[in-house]
Amino acid sequence: MNATLPAYNFAYLDEQTKRMIRRAILKAVAIPGYQVPFASREMPMPYGWGTGGVQVTASVIGPDDILKVIDQGSDDTTNAVSIRAFFARVANVAVTTKTVEATVIQTRHRIPETPLSEGQILVYQVPIPEPLRFLEPRETETRIMHALEEYGLMHVKLYEDIAQNGHIATTYAYPVKVEGRYVMDPSPIPKFDNPKMDDCPALQLFGAGREQRIYAIPPHTRIESLDFEDHPFRVQEFDRPCGLCGATDVYLDEIVTDDRGGRLFACSDTDYCEERRERAA
Amino acid sequence: MSEAPLLNATAITKTYGSQIGCENISLDIHEGEVLAIVGESGSGKTTLLNCLAQRLPMTAGRVSYRMRDGTTRDLAGLTEAERRFLMRTDWGFVHQNPADGLRIRVSAGANIGERLMAIGDRHYGQIRETAHDWLSRVEIPGVRIDDRPTAFSGGMRQRLQIARNLVTNPRLVFMDEPTGGLDVSVQARLLDLLRGLVDQLALAAIVVTHDLAVARLLSHRMIVMKGGRVIETGLTDRVLDDPRHPYTQLLVASILEV
Ligand SMILES: Nc1ncnc2c1ncn2[C@@H]1O[C@H](COP(=O)(O)OP(=O)(O)OP(=O)(O)O)[C@@H](O)[C@H]1O
Ligand SMILES: [Mg+2]
């Protein structure tokens, strides 16, 4: 389908709603890591399918943008394909699977391996925006804790991790401190990707639809992963290269290749992997 | 005592609508001193304790406290950040029900370490060592450090709650019926432990109890409440051995009968 459906405004949301969401985004950019409430709208997909990210993308995307959508590093999952198709339909924007070509990248669970550059926007889909919720379910209390920078509880969680597992066993949604101030949940990306957030030249926006929160990391912001002096933060290490492209410094997924227990470890970032194989060929 | 009091309360009143919680109560507590608040159910003990500990807004009155830096502050004038910092460093609060004062979902070690991490400790090994030390001080075997409080007996939970409060070396601890829900034999052991800790650490404490034996064992001074008011106050031995107010006489007589 090529033309925008007449029933929809550009990018599905009406201009009023987009302005409201942009105001929330501007506030989020002005206070890096701070969770800004916004009035989440009904989207033509259920919560849990990235409604927060979709609303953020809809509010920042323009007719000249080129959109990439990834889910677990892949452009081809049902979720990624349907969100990409949604924007192609309601905003008539160009889409791509190539990280370098994209101006807006909506993601669930990964940051692309190809370094992002100035002018790009990375939009994260966020299920649970509140990093303190694990130990403090009361929202009135977590709000005070953020306001007063009372983040001891985050270390209680890491302490517990080490006590129960011998090391910090949190591998996804690993908490970070943003520009030395707010503690933030980076959404369920692997901690492998945490260092990519630090000093990143792209704008990073986070949208939680069900929880109605938006937060942001402006370009070139300091992002530190929380840790202990004697248990410093470390990313996952893989003891083998990608089985398809041979890359060694990337995040690998385990792929079952047949029904006789055949397994393969390959780049979770499919675009990155294909690019490398094309270049090698 | 010549030194200025650690905490001073002047004319504290707390009403719940038309219901009086406590009325026009003034008291001092000095460093290292244990004050018991006794009285029958509904006499206003918990209300008074919560007002003193800044956990309940007062209807009238003021509470001032001599901070660690030596300055005496009207607690109503503290910022929220200062108030919360005071509560988790220089103060402790021991609830009757340990579940109210513990984090049930994390281990004993994490429970004890929480305050340390809250004030910026970032060395896992040291936090753990301190937690270990405190477990032994409250007579919980060190091997239980990674167990959750849900796996503990009532007495152990209460001792864990105490350890969790004392780890920052507070100067003042508030306790509401600390031996309340426990069996008699467990109560006795906890009382011994509390008495030892209060002595060693020269803690000041305000202990609410309806049990005169607890007051006798733990406190230097006591106040007797009835209907939200203080009806008698004095050194604990004096009040218990020579009660002046007819109501106190009745209270003391009633325990001697059993
Ligand atoms: N939240 C409340 N709302 C209304 N009235 C209250 C409230 N809390 C306490 N009261 C009333 O204030 C009075 C003092 O109660 P408080 O709980 O301080 O007594 P107490 O001495 O601690 O009693 P107990 O020994 O049973 O714990 C009682 O009459 C009680 O009913
Ligand atoms: Mg009470």
UniProtKB/TrEMBL annotation, chain A:
<protein>
    <recommendedName>
        <fullName>Alpha-D-ribose 1-methylphosphonate 5-phosphate C-P lyase</fullName>
        <ecNumber>4.7.1.1</ecNumber>
    </recommendedName>
</protein>
<dbReference type="Pfam" id="PF06007">
    <property type="entry name" value="PhnJ"/>
</dbReference>
<dbReference type="GO" id="GO:0046872">
    <property type="term" value="F:metal ion binding"/>
</dbReference>
<dbReference type="GO" id="GO:0019700">
    <property type="term" value="P:organic phosphonate catabolic process"/>
</dbReference>
<comment type="function">
    <text>Catalyzes the breakage of the C-P bond in alpha-D-ribose 1-methylphosphonate 5-phosphate (PRPn) forming alpha-D-ribose.</text>
</comment>
<dbReference type="GO" id="GO:0051539">
    <property type="term" value="F:4 iron, 4 sulfur cluster binding"/>
</dbReference>
<dbReference type="InterPro" id="IPR010306">
    <property type="entry name" value="PhnJ"/>
</dbReference>
<keyword id="KW-0479">Metal-binding</keyword>
<keyword id="KW-0411">Iron-sulfur</keyword>
<keyword id="KW-0456">Lyase</keyword>
<keyword id="KW-0949">S-adenosyl-L-methionine</keyword>
<keyword id="KW-0004">4Fe-4S</keyword>
<keyword id="KW-0408">Iron</keyword>
<comment type="similarity">
    <text>Belongs to the PhnJ family.</text>
</comment>
<dbReference type="GO" id="GO:0098848">
    <property type="term" value="F:alpha-D-ribose 1-methylphosphonate 5-phosphate C-P-lyase activity"/>
</dbReference>
UniProtKB/TrEMBL annotation, chain B:
<dbReference type="GO" id="GO:0016887">
    <property type="term" value="F:ATP hydrolysis activity"/>
</dbReference>
<protein>
    <submittedName>
        <fullName>Putative phosphonate transport system ATP-binding protein</fullName>
    </submittedName>
</protein>
<dbReference type="InterPro" id="IPR017871">
    <property type="entry name" value="ABC_transporter-like_CS"/>
</dbReference>
<keyword id="KW-0067">ATP-binding</keyword>
<dbReference type="InterPro" id="IPR027417">
    <property type="entry name" value="P-loop_NTPase"/>
</dbReference>
<dbReference type="GO" id="GO:0019700">
    <property type="term" value="P:organic phosphonate catabolic process"/>
</dbReference>
<dbReference type="InterPro" id="IPR003593">
    <property type="entry name" value="AAA+_ATPase"/>
</dbReference>
<feature type="domain" description="ABC transporter">
    <location>
        <begin position="7"/>
        <end position="252"/>
    </location>
</feature>
<comment type="similarity">
    <text>Belongs to the ABC transporter superfamily.</text>
</comment>
<keyword id="KW-0547">Nucleotide-binding</keyword>
<dbReference type="InterPro" id="IPR003439">
    <property type="entry name" value="ABC_transporter-like_ATP-bd"/>
</dbReference>
<dbReference type="InterPro" id="IPR012700">
    <property type="entry name" value="PhnK"/>
</dbReference>
<dbReference type="Pfam" id="PF00005">
    <property type="entry name" value="ABC_tran"/>
</dbReference>
<dbReference type="GO" id="GO:0005524">
    <property type="term" value="F:ATP binding"/>
</dbReference>
